[in-house]
Design a protein that fits this description.
- This protein is of the alpha/beta class.
- 24% of the residues lie in helices and 19% in strands.
- The strands form 5 sheets. Strands 16, 17, 18, 19, 20 and 21 form a 6-stranded parallel β-sheet that branches.
- α5 (322-334) packs across α10 (455-467).
Length: 468
């Protein structure tokens, strides 16, 4: 009886394999990623891991993945446009929204005689994915991590921490530099070049799966809505059916090493774009994964149609005074109420000391107590929060995290602005997106240090953009 059962199971497996239609590779610029199982997420011992990287077992079917990020030339040939912040045919396209990315996938599928994968309705609020179609698509978050890891279980696919000679990122800040800032000679990978821009696709050595720039250069949109992982074992997961943020992976040209890790998850509203986010194409290897998945943008109850359409509050944290100066200029131009956050235990006024304090608090995700308090009735009066902060270690200062967790941002519009020393927003917008998932997040304003003589015009241009 046992032999008969085993025979039937084997026969069923053979039937399933023969029943699945195999698709031809889209071209020489795609590689086959053979399906299998892996542990997605990161162990609790991994340095700089986030709480949303819970480990769980995942199985994915075989699929094709593009060797390179989509270039500006490829994007322009299909769309007739080039929205990128940096210009060059061989540079990766960036400054594209998630919705623009899936539109591109469909248009490219039609051009190449493949079946479009996505059906977009309700102004982009509803997107249905035909999982057995042979057209171009975005990888799922699980597929992206599986392909990036290439069988590894370490923070990066290579044993050695990648440096500026391996990856295009904020090379001054390799992995684990934060806790070794004043003693970087102990690091396996030392600080290197910061290029401050994208580079041509394929500029560095590929990972073992043959994928170039899987870390750095630009982050890469994935299909999934951002949400907590389910700890149970999963097969071909595609994220939640409803959400407010879409995932992108891999880090960009202005990211610190900690955010290049295979398990690191970034997120942004699907209608937003950034100068460090592009896409890499995927395509089914066969039609073994059946059915459709319909995803819907979650309603943002109470949100206004545009930023600044109701009462607005400028609230900011400043250490050196750069962010304070930007906040004052915004207040001068708008007349909005303004509040500066103060701490019960302020950070040191000494630069070297505050560097240690800032990275220590970020490392342990501390929530320093705010001296500044806002009455709940007063808070409810504001529809728009103009949120300012310095870019600390490629993210928000922890006092801003305290603020985001202390008040209800549901239905409010957040207009972010930051002062920085070269990394623009880093991953601070992802941090805000995760901590205030029920708020609408507009395009942000990043100001280099104090902004100089162009500050007034930069603020004016930004306000017009987000308030129209």
């Amino acid at each position: 009886m046992k032999k008969l059962s085993a025979f039937l199971i084997t026969l069923l497996g053979m039937f399933t394999m023969t029943a699945a239609a195999t698709f031809s590779p889209p071209g020489s610029d795609f590689v086959l990623i053979k399906g299998g199982s892996f542990t997605m997420g990161s162990p609790e011992s991994e340095d700089w891991r986030s709480n949303d990287e819970t480990q769980h077992s995942v199985t994915v079917a075989s699929f094709y993945m593009a060797k390179f990020e989509v270039s500006q030339k490829e994007w322009r040939e299909i769309t007739g446009k080039n929205p990128s912040n940096f210009s060059g045919d061989k540079l990766p396209v960036e400054s594209i929204t998630w919705l623009e990315a899936i539109d591109f996938c469909n248009a490219l599928s039609k051009r190449d005689g493949r079946t479009p994968v996505y059906t977009i309705t309700d102004g982009g609020n509803t997107v249905t994915w035909n999982r057995s179609a042979n057209g171009y698509r975005l990888p799922t978050e699980a597929e992206w991590e599986y392909a990036a890891r290439a069988g590894s279980t370490t923070p990066f696919y290579s044993r050695k921490v990648p440096g500026a000679e391996d990856v295009n990122f904020y090379g001054h800040y390799p992995y684990q530099i934060e806790q070794n800032y004043f003693n970087d000679e102990v690091l396996e990978t030392r600080p290197g070049l910061y290029r401050g821009k994208t580079v041509e696709v394929g500029s560095f050595k590929a990972n073992p799966n043959g994928l170039y720039d899987i870390y750095g250069n630009v982050g890469e949109w994935c299909f999934d809505y951002y949400g907590d992982y389910d700890k149970s074992a999963q097969s071909n997961p595609a994220g939640a059916s409803e959400g407010t943020r879409r995932v992108y992976r891999g880090g960009g040209w202005n990211d610190f090493g900690k955010n290049l890790r295979s398990a690191y998850r970034a997120a942004m509203p699907q209608n937003n774009s950034a100068y460090n986010v592009g896409l890499r194409l995927a395509c089914n290897a066969d039609d073994s994964v059946k059915g459709t998945i319909t995803t819907r943008e979650a309603a943002n109850t109470g949100a206004k149609k545009s930023a600044g359409s109701g009462k607005a509050l400028i609230i900011f944290y400043s250490w050196s005074g750069n962010t304070r100066g930007v906040a004052r200029e915004i207040a001068r131009q708008t007349g909005f109420d303004s509040i500066e956050l103060e701490l019960v235990k302020p950070y040191s006024s000494d630069y070297n000391t505050v560097l240690n304090q800032a990275q220590r608090d970020q490392h342990k995700q501390a929530r320093p107590e705010l001296k500044t308090k806002i009455d709940s009735k007063k808070w409810a009066e504001y529809d728009t929060i103009i949120l300012g902060y310095p870019n600390w270690w490629a993210s928000i200062p922890m006092p801003i995290a305290t603020l985001l967790e202390s008040y209800d941002f549901s239905g409010k519009t957040i207009m972010p602005f930051c002062s920085h020393g070269g990394g623009r927003f880093g991953q601070s917008l992802t941090a805000i997106s995760k901590l205030a998932p029920k708020a609408t997040l507009t395009a942000g304003l990043s100001i280099h240090y104090s902004g100089g003589s162009s500050l007034s015009k930069d603020v004016e241009k930004w306000l017009k953009k987000v308030q129209r």
